[in-house]
Specification:
Rossmann fold; 14% strand; 8-stranded mixed sheet; alpha/beta
Length: 284
């Protein structure tokens, strides 16, 4: 068989042309004329790829394999996806994953830290027969966070219209909770939650606190899902630290989600560091 020399040369030339386009004058024009939100979406995608390349210690798996690991048939998926009217707060793959996992654990409540616009809240509620508890800081600035917030967290908090999708799609199963997750008393939820979704403040202090509380709220066969993995440095760094401490966890390729079922190991860590509703420390 003859080597495909011509095809290889064309491939190399195409790659070189793509690289050259990054410094072409037209790229400068695009950068100066495109809306900032559009430019940020490209920058975020590039940053995610960079962060994934740094996470060689993490197993990234395909969506179908992730669902299979959580006892969900990836071929015959049943899920309800809410029409958000063009709102792009979360990719379709992420929505499908969260909806499918919530439906597979429909006999147990869900808990979410970080209501924000409420798009994920209504998605979870549409796929479970149980309550969906969602915890968020109040709109008022009167509640001073107990732990460090990143500048991006402050910006989101100032710009959001909290729970707008819960107002648009009201469901009796949604229970809104207002407060600081670092001060919130989670003991009433201990050993009750089937799916715990962590999407609150993105500082390492808050991610650690939220994770330790999630470990005690979850049933032993529960699932913890983190948002903003590989898109936020401190979230990514903390999840990598958990992996180094022996927690079995996975990233889902093409998304910003990571998940674990290793509730037992997380509880061991919680006892050691004294954080969470099963430990000895409560902030505030």
């Amino acid at each position: 068989m003859k080597s495909n020399i011509r095809g290889r040369i064309r491939g190399y030339l195409s790659t070189a042309a793509a690289a050259f386009s990054l410094v072409h004058v037209n790229m400068l024009r695009v950068a100066l004329t495109l809306p900032r939100a559009s430019l940020r979406s490209y920058a975020d995608a590039a940053f995610k790829l960079y962060m994934e390349s740094r996470c060689k210690d993490i197993d990234f798996i395909e969506l179908g394999d992730a669902l299979r690991m959580l006892d969900v048939d990836p071929v015959n998926i049943r899920a309800t996806l809410i029409d958000l009217g063009g709102y792009r707060g979360r990719s379709d793959w992420e929505r499908l994953f969260l909806a499918s996992v919530a439906r597979s654990r429909a006999s147990d409540p869900c808990f979410e830290i970080g209501t924000a616009a409420g798009n994920t809240t209504v998605l979870l509620a549409a796929n479970t027969a149980c309550s969906v508890y969602t915890l968020d800081l109040p709109d008022s600035g009167a509640c001073q966070p107990a732990l460090t917030l990143l500048g991006s967290d402050d910006a989101v908090r100032r710009s959001r219209k909290r729970a707008e999708f819960i107002e648009k799609y009201p469901q009796a199963s949604i229970v809104e909770l207002i407060g600081d997750s670092a001060r919130f008393d989670f003991t009433a939820f201990r050993d009750r939650i089937g799916l715990f979704f962590i999407d609150g403040a993105h500082s390492i202090e808050y991610v650690e606190s939220d994770t330790m509380n999630a470990a005690w709220c979850c049933r032993e066969d529960g699932v913890i899902v983190w948002d903003d993995f590989t898109t936020t440095r401190e979230v990514t760094g903390y999840i990598r630290r958990l992996k180094a401490e022996g927690v079995q966890l996975f990233g889902i390729r093409g998304t910003r989600l990571a998940f674990t079922r290793d509730v037992a190991r997380l509880r061991e860590i919680s006892r050691r560091v004294g954080l969470g509703c099963g430990g000895t420390y409560h902030a505030g």
